[in-house]
Amino acid sequence: MNTYKRHRFPPDIISYAVWLCYYFNLSHRDIEDLLAERGITVSREAIRLWCIKFGVIYTRRLKRKHRGYGDTFYIDEVFVKINDRRHYLWRAVDQDGEVVDVYLQGKRDVAAAKRFFRRLLRSHGAALRKIVTDKLRSCGVAHRELIPETIHSTEQYENNRAEQSHEATRVRERGMRRFKSVGQAQRFVKAHAAVSNLFNLGRQLVSAGHYRDLRVSAFSEWSKAVA
Fold it and tell me: Average pLDDT, whole number, for the chain?
C-alpha cells in the first residue's frame, strides 16, 4: 500500500513538514514560510492535514520499532483546559526520560488512574519494577489493586522527571494557542512524544562525536518510519 497515494507533493516534503511540526515549536504558518523559502508553495491548511494524517501513521511505526523502556516509570498528571473545560493529561516516563505513554482524560479519580495503569501494563508492564508518583491517592489505590508487587514511591522531588516532561507540551500548547479539541490534543501529544523519544539523544551526557553518530542513527530510523 502506497502511504502517499493521491498526494501531489513528494513524500520527502510531506515527511519534512510533519517532522518540523512535531519536533520544533513551529506553527503551520511558520512551516509554510520555511517551505516557501525553499521554493515550495503549499498552504498551511495542507500542512495541517498532513500532520493529522501522517502524524498518526508515523507514530504507529515509531512505536512498533521502539527499542523498549526501562523498568521504572515516573507518573504524573497535569490539567489542560480545552474549550473552557478542565481535562487531565496523564504521563509516564522511564528513568531515561523516554515518554512511555501520554493519555488525556476528563478526571484524575481512581477510575482514571486505573485506566491509565492498565494502559501501561497492557503495553509496557512486563518488567515493571518500580513506579514513582506524587501523593495523589488515586495512584495509590490503582497501585494496590493492579500492581501491588511493584515498588511504589511518593518521595518529595523524586517525581520531578515526570513533572519536567510536561513542560515541552506546555510550550507547544501555548504556541498553538491552546488545544481546540480532545481528539486534536490526544493526536498531537502522542505524535510529539514518539518523535521526541526518537531524538532524545542525551546531548548533554555524551561527547560531540558520539552525539553526531546518535543523530545519524535517529535520522535513519526516521527515514524508515516515513518511507
Answer: 92
123 contacts 60 by C-beta, under 8 angstroms: no
Paired strand residues for 153? 132
Report the alpha-carbon distance of residue 91 to residue 41 in Å, rounded: 37
**pLDDT one-digit tens code per residue, 9-32:** 999 999 999 999 999 999 999 999
On whether the CB atoms of residues 56 and 194 are closer than 8 A, the answer is no
Report the relative pairing of strands 151-153 and 85-94 from DSSP bridges: unpaired
Instruction: Kindly report the pTM of this predicted structure.
Output: 0.88
Q: What is the pLDDT of residues 27-53, one digit of tens each?
A: 999 999 999 999 999 999 999 999 999
Query: Quick one: cell of 206?
Result: 555524551
CA 211 to CA 178: how far, in whole Å? 34
Buried b (16+ CB within 10 A) or exposed e, 73-105: bbbbbbebebeeeebbbbbbbbeebbbbbbbbb
pLDDT digits 0-9 by tens, 56-91 = 999 999 998 888 888 999 999 999 999 889 999 999
Q: Which residues pair with 76 in a beta bridge?
A: 91
Whole-Å CA distances, 190 to 55, 78, 138, 168, 180: 9, 15, 23, 13, 16
Residue 174 pLDDT level (bands cut at 50, 70, 90):
confident
Q: Enter the CATH code of domain 72-180.
A: 3.30.420.10
